[in-house]
Amino acid sequence: MKTVQIRRFILLDNKYKTKIISGKKVTTVRYGKYEAKPGSEVYIVITPSDTAIAKAKIKEIRTKRVKELTNEDAKLDGFSNVKELVRELSRIYGELYGDDEVTIIEFEDVKPLREGIPLKWLKGLNYRDPYEIVELALDNFSSLKLTQDVEIILKRIKERGVREAAKNFGPKRVQQALLRAYHALYDRGLL
Fold first, then answer.
1. Residues 6+ apart with CB under 8 A from 58
2. Each residue of 134-187: pLDDT tens digit?
3. Which residues pair with 52 in a beta bridge?
4. Which of 13, 35, 113, 120 has its CA 20 to 30 A from that of 49?
């Protein structure tokens, strides 16, 4: 079985969003082998919209057989008991057997994002927080050789958020402004 590397984000179903933000779900149980570096920061991305809703740190990764899962494992994953957890895992992955291996990925320090950010935007920004890019770009604007149009869009993002800026200027223009700011910052060694 191939090992899956978790580097920048973890995908979770939208139905778990409230439990993640409230801290009632601090693990995700996955069929198969997964690896991640404890202490590494990842985005929590909900599906099917592929929208990042929070940042978190990987606390621990451990593997178990399905038959070794406990009620405590289930509770950390936001379920009432192990039977409910295994039922959901079987719905997602197909029928699981007692000797099948699962990976428990525990996260901590969950920090909700100001608003959801499309995953494809984060990828284009090399997983940098758009608000960090906006702040840096506006603080260094005179040395970045960006257009006034980009400045107006960045100011709108800072004042009202990405979603509101996208409503005003269109998502493509907002994405392009963020990308231009990111590349200008990168070229100047500020990122």
1. 6, 36, 37, 38, 39, 40, 41, 42, 105, 106, 107
2. 999 999 999 999 999 999 999 999 999 999 999 999 999 999 999 999 999 999
3. 45, 117
4. 35
Side chain identity, residue 37: K
Please give the span between the terminal C-alpha atoms of the chain, in angstroms, as a whole number: 37
User: pLDDT (tens digit, 9 = 90+) per residue, 16-40?
Assistant: 999 999 999 999 999 999 999 999 9
d(CA 130, CA 16): 24
| pTM, rounded to two decimals | 0.85
Q: How far is CA 50 from CA 44, 65, 121, 176, 185, in A?
A: 10, 29, 10, 19, 26
pLDDT > 90 fraction of the chain, expressed in percent and rounded: 94
Closest CA to 161 of 131, 140, 191, 186: 131
